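Student: I would love a firmer grasp of how sequence relates to backbone shape in proteins. Thank you; the sequence and its tokens follow:
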Amino acid sequence: MPLYETVLIARNDVTQQQVEQIAADIQTELEADGGAVKKNEYWGLRSLAYRIKKNRKGHYLLLGLDAKPSFVFEMERKLGLNEDVLRFMTLRVEEIEEGPSAVLARKSDERDRGFRGPKPTGRFESGRRRGFDDREEFRARDNTGGEEFRGGFEE
């Protein structure tokens, strides 16, 4: 049977257990049809690139399927009818990778970075904190000699 990878995005209102239940339903139907789920990865709640049906975030799930094409068409039809699923995409692949996907590998790399030291206090400065009077406009006023300048009036 051909191999497929399906990525689906569920609404952020649903829980992780409900998203995993969608995957479990697909798995039971697929096993009844004679196929198998080779890979099941939950990528977590992630921000969407743009709003979809008024949602800014979604639960991402990757499924690696060994299924008949007729099952894939039926699965896509049911996912399209499910109100909890915002988007899905199924691709036919030559083989399903055994290790973690690129998304999960990148997540683990971010966790391995560890502590990088304290951040500087200023946004773009080296860490020296400026006071209220250190701003250039106040220094410029102090250098004008405030008492001597009368704005063009002579006495």
About this structure: Residues 120 and 127 are 4 Å apart (CA to CA).
